[in-house]
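Progress report, Aim 2. The chain analyzed during this reporting quarter is listed below.
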Amino acid sequence: MAQIYVLEDDVNIQEIEMYALTASSFSVRAFSTAAAFREALHERKPDLLVLDLMLPDADGYDIVQEMRSDPSYSKIPILMVTARGSEMDKVRGLDLGADDYLAKPFGIMELISRVKAILRRTSPADSDSGLCRAGSILMDDEKHEVRVDGRPVELTFKEYSLLKLLMDNAGRVQTREEILDKVWNTDFAGESRTLDMHIRSLRKKLGNAGAQIRTLRNVGYILDDVTRPQ
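Predicted structure tokens for the chain:
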């Protein structure tokens, strides 16, 4: 049974989320403050965090950033549920490393659907941990590190997720729709500019190795020359 932590200071919304998740056979613990959540996090790591951004003792964005920068908690999936529904709020949260974003007010069925979708994507059975090499690019998924010709490359959480998707599907075209669905959990065509921006940034950070990411016009992207160390 998946363990889900809910960090939400609004008692009514917290109760609704707990009821819906428990009724869907999830084990749930709820917290009203970041301090209580952090204490519980040291006791047991959840399989997913449902996070409100506006908390009495912390900013939800800071919590996302803290977790993504700590190797002990960096792989815990995060679903942000918040009243901040603007595009910029959404982009900021996703770029910091949240796996999905649900704006209030929301439907219970949509909440459960998004939770299940995140857990499917991040299930250990589906993950491909370890080393993966693409020409001069080396990805160590256990350490969440990328190196080019031995040089460490600092990537944002989304840039890393994008590169991992391309490396895991080396030699196979990933359509724009597939990438948006798997990395940003959306099929909204308007997000294409976000994808293009991340591809440009990723290529730049990879240097000459960025040329291995090829554009198939009006289709998507493909990564060439991947080998896995024995």
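The two ends are 35 Å apart (CA to CA). The longest strand covers residues 3-7. These observations will guide the mutagenesis work planned for the next reporting period.
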